[in-house]
Amino acid sequence: MAEGGPQLTPPDNPSGNSHLLDCPICLEQLRQPKCLPCHHSLCQECLTSYIIREVSGTSDTAVSFTCPVCRKLTHPVDKSEDKEDWAKQFPTDIAVVEMIELKNRSSEPHYCMPCQRKGNLMTSAKFWCKTTQSLFCESCKVDFHDMIHINCDVVDITETKSFLLNQSTSDKICNKHKEKMDYYCEDHKSIGCCKCITVGHRKCDAVATTEEYCEKLTSGHWLEEMRKSLQKGEKEMESLVKDFHLQLQSIADGKDTAMKNIDDLQEQIINRIEEMKKEITDDLIAKYKEERENLKVSSQKCERLKVAIQNTLESSTTAQQRNDHMDMILLYQRGQAEVESCRDLLREVQTSLSSISIEHEADLHMTSPRPALSFGKIIVRKQHQHTPADTNAFAKPLSERDVKELQKIYIKCPSDEYDCYSRGVVYLPDGRIVVGDDRNKKIKLIDTEGNVVDELKVNGSPYDMCMVDNTTVAVAMNINPGCICLVTVAPSKLILASEINIDKPCNGIAYRNGEFVVSSGRNVFIVTKDSPRAMTRQIHESSDTVFALSYDLNNGKLFTTHYASSTGSVVVGRLSSDNTYSSVLNVGVVEKALMAWTWTGKVTCMSVATVPTT
């Protein structure tokens, strides 16, 4: 591969893509541009400062940082080096360096070559012949060039100076092998010459020419879908930026109103007025600055991503018009990263976006015989609000929702021998449901209309369930010895993918940090090995049977439920990341708690089905 990895090709018009030459942090022309894996380039100095600021306050063992534009998690080449040297490890963006040089050259004067040979060194050139690679004044073009060369492609450089860029070939040359880079490996998402592909990618399944892959992107409408997603992301970011600007104006207005109230009170106070005014004014300004900076930081995140999306949209259109295969691929990859970052940022903002107001609350009662000298206090009021973006990522948290029966679903099938009894259920992202039927020893798939579309017979009683990913469900089997069934959920079918054997029956199950947590009786275990029989490591022993488990991705807490009814017994408990146990709910509030799972994007929510005590 070329040194520094594949880069974007300089466009035909450098001034039309000048945003590619600007650092998204300092907003000036890039200096020593460094290219991150997500294809965003920054000044080496700016990137170094950003990395130091990003990892400050974290542990000394931090091994990554997020791109300041798309917020994609980025790892340095050598994590052992000092944070101050991480930026140097990333490849120099050679394409940007060349674009800057060409941009500077395009502003230089150009002189007629025939006139220079005749001794007239300062005759300005007006035309550029692409065929002969020569410059001519108007007279020499007519007298010399046009007499011999009839079908040449001649450009009037007084209208555009992009002819300089046409002096360089559009072929990309591998710095290592000096061969044309016209192959693309889909497995590794990398571009290389024939030698690179032969040596490093001979075992890869999906290798094609860049032209073939670009045709695949175009014919499969992937580029168009990516562009639509970027356009949607741009609108979402624009909406958020506008909202942040309104918030900034709102808190500024609140600050002004509070200042006016403070000034009105000043007239009624005759002693210690200046000292007290200064105290409360400082408090107001401090709160205003704090909230202003918080909003600005969030706004800058959205603004950077919005600008990046706009740039990617513009550049991808240009690349497709020029039929530049390499740029189309790289911009497609960059667009994918920005779309994912847009979704992540929308989810992040959803949890923190509030309607903020700064108010002054007076505490001075002038009707009192001896009114206390007080300017009152400054109050920052925050009320959670939903983002203006029309996206499911901004749904209300469970604690703010009303309960409403939408549908009754009957899970009994004609083939069932007994009445159904369900102990575990998982809600898939697309609205389908996977439910376990303990009595009939089945796992059933229910579509969005409430119809059972498939049933999977299992050897044992399916108890608790959890999501592994969007298409895989893990089921705790209460048999002796126990096992974990991994079930693949196809569009209308359940497939038993594999089984992990355990030396004890399973009640509850959760998926935490890439490993399974199971409960058996009163004990909670980590499953540490899956062949030939899983090994377990106990992390907690409860006073009552642990009936089900649930892992909260947001705060890293593992919840346990107990089928308990004795007064004072724990019904819902919590294990922290270091397995410290604490009680959440005891009998007296609820009893005999069960669990169900939902899966919303990347956030796992726990709901507790309870029987109220009477």
Helical amount:
25-40%
**Proportion of residues in extended strands:** 25-35%
Give the number of helices: 10
Q: So what's the overall shape? A: flat
Structural class: alpha+beta
Largest sheet: 6 strands, mixed
Question: Which spans have pLDDT < 50 for at least 5 consecutive residues?
Answer: 1-16, 161-170, 389-399, 596-614
Q: C-alpha Rg, in Å?
A: 33 Å
| CATH fold topology of the domain at 425-611 | Neuraminidase
Tell me the CATH superfamily of the domain at 425-611.
TolB, C-terminal domain
* CATH-defined architecture of the domain at 425-611: 6 Propeller
Give the strand order, joined by hyphens, for the main sheet: 16-15-14-13-29-30
Indicate the mean pLDDT: 79
Distance between the termini: 72 Å
What is the subunit arrangement here? single chain
CATH class of the domain at 425-611: Mainly Beta
Strand segment tally: 30
How would you describe this protein?
Helices cover 30% and strands 26% of the residues. It is built from 10 helices and 30 strands. The strands form 9 sheets. Strands 16-15-14-13-29-30 form a 6-stranded mixed sheet, with no helix packed on it. The protein has a 4-stranded antiparallel sheet with strand order 17-18-19-20, with no helix packed on it. Among the domains are: 108-160, Double Stranded RNA Binding Domain, CATH 3.30.160; 231-397; 425-611, 6 Propeller (Neuraminidase), CATH 2.120.10.30. The protein has 614 residues and is an alpha+beta fold.
Helix/strand layout:
Elements: E1 33-35, E2 41-43, H1 44-55, E3 65-66, E4 73-74, H2 86-89, H3 94-106, H4 113-117, E5 127-129, E6 134-136, H5 138-148, E7 154-156, E8 183-185, E9 190-192, H6 194-200, E10 207-209, H7 210-219, H8 222-266, H9 273-321, H10 325-352, E11 354-361, E12 377-384, E13 425-427, E14 433-437, E15 442-446, E16 452-457, E17 462-469, E18 472-477, E19 483-489, E20 494-501, E21 509-512, E22 515-520, E23 523-527, E24 536-541, E25 546-552, E26 557-562, E27 570-575, E28 581-586, E29 591-600, E30 603-611
Helix pairs in contact: 7-10, 8-9, 8-10, 9-10
